[in-house]
Amino acid sequence: MMDTQEIMIPYLRESVNEYRLKCGTNHSNLDWDVSYCDELITHITRIFAMYYLMTPNAGISAHSDAHQYIWNATIYLNEIWNPDWGGLLLWDDGDDYFRGVVPKKNRMILFESNKYHLVTPLSPTAGELRVTIQLRELESQFTR
Q1: What phi and psi, each to the nearest 5 degrees, are found at residue 127?
Q2: What is the pTM for the complete model shown?
């Protein structure tokens, strides 16, 4: 049986490399989610995944996961997503601004857990539930 690391490390590396090819390394404003990947995924001790279904009116307030996780990744699964439906991931870019990304099928966003982030509430008229897979690496004190 394959261990989680053997499955996830190649997937994360492939996703990051594909993203870098699409965006190019000169797009510093687009590299926020891959700039730490090599460092983050080489010291994996324990990764787990959660399947999320976000319903209308649901959102996640601004928070940091720094005390429990090393990094977070979100993979979007919806075939289509209208930005008017909400459900946008926003993160603190460190310059007194929040940046955001619209869900897009198979897009993976990877960031350090010490970044403040939130998900905007879904509109009551959203055409679909927001569907994602969340990947996280636990801090070493939380591993067995």
Answers
A1: -75, -15
A2: 0.67
